[in-house]
Amino acid sequence: MRTIDMTNGARVVSTRSTASLLSQVLWITAAGFVTTAAGAYVAPMLLGGIGFGVLFLATFALILAVNMTARKSPGLALVLFYAFTFLMGVEVGPVIKAYLHIPGGQLVVFQAAGTTALGMAIMAVVAQIANFDYQRVGRTAFWCLIGLCLVGLLGSFVHIVSPGLYAWASLAIFSVLLLVDFMRLRDGAMGLAPVQMALSIYLDALNIFMALLQIFGGSNNSRSRN
Are 213 and 179 within 8 A, CB to CB? Predict the structure, then answer.
């Protein structure tokens, strides 16, 4: 009697579906960063009429809206995601342009962007071979992020940590969260829609970029003074 082993076939199908999901999420994320670049370009024309307070509330509302519509209306969720990434570009645009107008600032922005892209590629590869309880690690990193946000909030009133140390802590936390997201993606996204995974990875990568911008910018300023 001949038996048919379906295990290998199931594994092949699973691998293909995971690769397809990864490709879809990365394409959505990449398009989101292009939209962010467009938002950063037009930031000076829009910020005067919007204001940072309204901008912050709008981006927060869009995050909620993406997660609420991701399952019921994927097309609408995708549009909302790109609206969010555009507004994020408007929000971070002044910071990026400030770096572009200082000596060596263009190199700083290029280094931060290139290192972020390289880091994403490395994390995507590491996630395929890593074997640990990433859900537990993700929860720990999330609580560390909450603590870091509280430190940042208090730091606006009382000097607690240096900006450089804060940037390094932010880089470490979001790097861990990025790895966790790629591991979730490896395991089929844990029930999340592609646009939700793209949103999470986008936020991780954007915060890594902003942290690297501050780190490289600080190093550049130190060299200039010397």
Answer: no
